[in-house]
Amino acid sequence: MEDLKDLTIKSFGEGLREKKFSAMEATLAYFENIKKMDPSLGAYLHLMEESAATQAEKIDLALQNGEELGPLAGVPMAIKDNILIKGHPATAASKMLKDYVASYDASVINNLKRSGAVFLGKTNMDEFAMGSSTENSAFRLTRNPRDMERVPGGSSGGSAAAVAGDLALAALGSDTGGSIRQPAALCGVVGLKSTYGTVSRSGLIAMASSLDQIGPITKTVSDAAQVFMAIQGSDPLDNTNAGIAYDPKEILEPSLEKVKKLRVGVPKEFMVDGLEDKVRSGIEQAVEKIKSLGVEVKTISLPNAKYALSTYYIIMPAEVSSNLARFDGIRYGARDDENKKQSLLDIYLSERGRGFGAETKRRIILGTFVLSSGYYDAYYEKAQRVRALMRKDLDEAFKEVDVIIGPTTPTTAFKIGEKTSDPLSMYLSDIFTIPANMAEIPAISIPVEKFKEGELPVGFQLMGRRFREADILSLGQYYEKLN
Ligand code: GLN
Predict the structure, then answer these.
(1) Mutate which of 80, 83, 124, 130 for ligand 1 pocket (most atoms within 8 A of beta carbon)
(2) What pLDDT digit, counting tens, does each position of 191-217 carry?
(3) Pairing with 430, which of 37, 132, 133, 359 sits 20 to 30 Å away (CA)?
(4) Inter-residue contact 45 to 89 (CB < 8 Å)
(5) Beta pairing, strands 76-80 & 118-123
(6) H helices within 65-195, ranges in order?
(7) At CA 362, angle to CA 359 and CA 365, rounded to 5?
(8) What SS3 state is found at 461?
(9) For the segment 91-128, what is each residue's pLDDT rounded down to a tens digit?
(10) Residue 80 bears catalytic tag
(11) Which atom, in ligand 1's list, is nearest to the CA of 178?
């Protein structure tokens, strides 16, 4: 088996088909790395060694028999623990679900199985995907493989750490306000959140349903494009699914001619004070490189972007409070025997009190408040109106440009414990990623340059029009050829 560091989905597929290694050898090589590294890294919550071996065996057999292989045949993948895989735990990193075993496959898992992917295990995350550092996990700490004193970002921190640390070749995360892109940026890998409604949410443990999307975390943009094509598609089990048919050629084999015609905008509101110097110079560097492709870049304005964070922290908790109502010790959540004699209200109070962590409780309380009678109009309804304004802002901008570029995060990876006692400073991590969720548009975080030992990675973000994943993915694929 060659060095896992050099593998991408593309080179993996070639190596497997040229019989340089088998799917089983690859799977075992990743587990060997996991055994060595994960006790200190903390990327995984559950390993799936037996089922992974069975999946890899099947791929090797198909290969021997000359059968046609799926596009992700044998690719060892890590799955965020809020995505259901039948017969395996799905805890969403909450004590509330510590004994829960999924009774069905999420639609994305069905799609990946059809593509031939092998699942290595379930990754750590912030409880119910709420957080920006993975420190809100009820079970373990995840470290950033680029600097073990620092957080990997969140909430898909385990998935990003697994890919950056070569404990998986690719991973799935979920993104409600930045949870794929922010950890990807902090760990120096690629993370894509596609247009709302392109990837089925069936089998994703819901956080805020009008914002949640599942997406890939990978080492390269071209790998992200591969995984995106495998997981997207119409699904009768998700009634918000848009049923768009993407042209695989446009996404997987982009043309430089088309990329050169893209017009790119930098929102002046994104290059603000408070941006870490290293991030600012990283973005300037990315813009220069994009210009060197022959692409036109100009300054644009998103006047309402400044409201993104405050409206998100009204809409998101409102949806959280209703989605998490089902975790009550009866429908979901295991009950202690001694609790069985209690009244219904006592059960709710004791189970929800015991099962949820502090951040989850904070958001349920906030959400219940903004939805309560008398406050609904002042908060929730108003926030929905501002969300519409933000969408309009972006529609206007996309009349002038095809792609918007900016930072993914205001800072590089911060130290473990640095922001845990100050929720507001933690919330600020998502200031640049939230607009894409609010406007339902696709956005990707890409490392500015190849990782250099001893330096913290910086990611830049590309946002595109709804359903124009092709624009950001094709520009990204040509960008990474320059690296
Ligand atoms: N970090 C953001 C939050 O805490 C985003 C979470 C997410 O995208 N799941 O809400």
Answers:
(1) 130
(2) 999 999 999 999 999 999 999 999 999
(3) 37
(4) yes
(5) parallel
(6) 107-115, 157-164, 181-187
(7) 150
(8) strand
(9) 999 999 999 999 999 999 999 999 999 999 999 999 99
(10) yes
(11) 8
